User: What shape does this take?
Amino acid sequence: MPDEGLAGVRAAAERFLRALDDLDWEPFRASWASEPTVFFPFGDTPDRVIGRTAVETRWRRFFEETRARRPGPPYLHLKPRDIRVERLGDVGLVTFMLDGLSAADGRQLPLQRRTLLFVWERDMWKLAHLHASAASQP
Assistant: This one.
């Protein structure tokens, strides 16, 4: 079990977000645990996606569609704010918000919320679950 406290969890989250922002597939793929789950923020993917193959398939589609529509890297211009990093026993929990994001069609997206759950696997912090949702508009 790691002894670096929050620093290792924070570094793993930063690597993941940098790879996502740049749509850099190999480092992005390497960030994931062996059997991840994801709640995507995409309207066409409302159910929880379970397992490495299914998660990678959905992300690959997102990467391809985004690269085709936007210049980059970076492609997403992520600016996480209010980042909170916690160690809860054997897991690392990272929560933050993203605002200022725009959809592919140019419209402004509502405030986005993210939760990343990391587990210690193969001597590294790996992303086991990502939950992405939008805050409701007033």
The radius of gyration is 15 Å. DSSP finds three helices and six strands in the chain.
